[in-house]
C-alpha cells in the first residue's frame, strides 16, 4: 500500500535550472527519508507556485515527513502551503501505468 | 519535458475496491488520452477527498486534458475541485527517483 503526499505553495522563484541548483542538497536529503519511494518536483513560473508529489511506503512514514515539512515551512517563513495525504488506489493506478515504486 | 496535472476534489465515496470497480472503464479511457504518460489515483476516506496525479508529454496535452476534465466535473456536478498544472523539474526529480516515464 503506497501513500502519496501532495504539496504546493506560493513560490517567487528560483525556477528551472536555478531551482535545481538551489535545492540539490535538499533533494539528496529527502531521498534518504524513512519509507521514501520517490518525489517529483513541481513548479509553475506563471502562477508562481512550486511543490512536490511524494510517494511513501506507509501512512506513518508519510505523516512523519509531513510533520517535518511543516516545521521547514515555518522555519523558512513559507505561508499558504497546501499539504494533503492520500492513499493510492493501486487497482486503478495499475490500469493507468501509475508508478508505485 | 514532462507536465504534471494535480487534481483533488471532495468525494463522499466509493473508496478502495468499490472505487476501483466504479472507475475501471474511466481508467481505461484515460490511459488512451493524447500525450498521456501515467496517472496515480488518490483517495482519502477520512477527509472525504479523491483525485489524481497525471503526467503528460507536453503542456498542450496537459491543458487539453484539464479542459476535458473540467467539463466532466461540471457534467457530474462535482464542485470544489482543485486542478493545477505544473512543469516537472527533471534535474531535482532525478535525484529523488521521480518517475518521468
Automatic annotation (TrEMBL), chains A, B:
The lineage of its organism: Bacteria, Bacillati, Bacillota, Bacilli, Bacillales. It comes from Oceanobacillus piezotolerans. Pfam families: ydhR (PF08803). NCBIfam families: PRK11118.1. The keyword Oxidoreductase applies. GO terms for molecular function: monooxygenase activity. Coiled coil: none annotated. Transmembrane segments: none annotated. This is Monooxygenase. Keywords: Monooxygenase, Oxidoreductase.
Amino acid at each position: 500500500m503506497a501513500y502519496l503526499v501532495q504539496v504546493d505553495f506560493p513560490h517567487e522563484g528560483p525556477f528551472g535550472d536555478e531551482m535545481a541548483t538551489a535545492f540539490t542538497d535538499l533533494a539528496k536529503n529527502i531521498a534518504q527519508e524513512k519509507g521514501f519511494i520517490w518525489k517529483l518536483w513541481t513548479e509553475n513560473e506563471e502562477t508562481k507556485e512550486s511543490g512536490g508529489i511524494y510517494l511513501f511506503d506507509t501512512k506513518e512514514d508519510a505523516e512523519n515527513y509531513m510533520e517535518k515539512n511543516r516545521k521547514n515551512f515555518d522555519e523558512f517563513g513559507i505561508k499558504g502551503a497546501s499539504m494533503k495525504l492520500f492513499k493510492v488506489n493501486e487497482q486503478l493506478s495499475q490500469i493507468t501505468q501509475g508508478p508505485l515504486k
